[in-house]
Design goal:
mainly alpha; about 260 residues; two-stranded antiparallel sheet
Length: about 260
């Protein structure tokens, strides 16, 4: 880990960082998938797969040593577990000999995410999802040790990770989400997040001091819902115009430009 001193994660510079590794290695998994599908750099693919396995299994081993389960990979928030679940989905595809180990983790995560997703109905009869960033149950040892684990609504910025997981679950054939209705997730954007000329900070349309003015970070996750509902395109374009100064030169600029030309 090595980020600018102004970054909130600078405190762990020079150290291994489970949260950042989950975020990074989900892209390594996607990179491997692209190479394999297109038969590119086949001589490098085993090394990339090895790195993917090493990171997941490193934290798994430490987690089982400390807790006897996958606690560290689940972490305390759904969006952190979602990143590692994406990694596990790719490993299920490319490390089939150890598929059961990854599928146990994915299935446990999916059970919690399904329970977390709340289907709401607007006054006009439109269905949409909201959820908390906290897990609905203290289902693993680490969570059971937290005495005051209170529900916290999912913020839009970190919600990207949950949305991306659901998209990847569909793309990679995770049977747990075969019947998932992405239109309800698209409606969350339309009804609760993209509000007039502003963007809400939480998935239920609210805000709080800890996430204030962060809703504009609808990048790799929320934006990909355009593939499911093209009517989101002009809505996102309109709203992000108001935040162009924040996006420019930010750490998310490349993501925005790669997804949304």
């Amino acid at each position: 880990m090595n980020v600018n001193s102004s970054n909130q994660n600078a405190i762990v510079n020079g150290q291994e960082h489970l949260i950042s590794e989950g975020y990074f290695f989900r892209y390594i998994g996607e990179f491997l998938d692209i190479l394999a599908k297109n038969k590119l750099y086949t001589n490098y693919q085993p090394a990339i797969e090895s790195g993917l396995k090493y990171s997941f299994n490193k934290w798994k081993a430490r987690s089982f040593s400390q807790y006897g389960d996958y606690s560290l990979l689940f972490h305390q928030r759904l969006h952190t577990g979602a990143n590692w679940a994406v990694v596990a989905l790719y490993l299920m595809k490319y490390d089939e000999s150890n598929k059961n180990s990854y599928s146990v983790f994915v299935n446990q995560f999916d059970q919690q995410l399904k329970k977390a997703l709340i289907l709401n109905k607007s006054t006009s009869g439109v269905f949409y999802y909201t959820w908390n960033s906290t897990y609905p149950d203290a289902f693993c040892k680490a969570l059971q040790k937290i005495k005051n684990y209170k529900p916290v609504i999912q913020d839009v910025s970190h919600g990207n990770h949950v949305v991306l997981y659901l998209i990847k679950a569909k793309e990679l054939g995770n049977a747990n989400w075969t019947d998932f209705n992405f239109s309800y997730l698209c409606n969350t954007l339309k009804l609760k997040i993209l509000k007039g000329d502003s963007i809400a900070d939480n998935v239920d349309g609210t805000t709080n001091p800890s996430v204030q003015n962060t809703g504009w970070k609808i990048s790799d996750g929320w934006m990909k819902l355009i593939y499911f509902d093209t009517s989101l395109y002009p809505l996102i374009e309109k709203n992000l115009t108001n935040y162009s100064n924040k996006i420019k030169n930010s750490s998310l600029e490349l993501q925005f430009n790669s997804i949304y030309p």
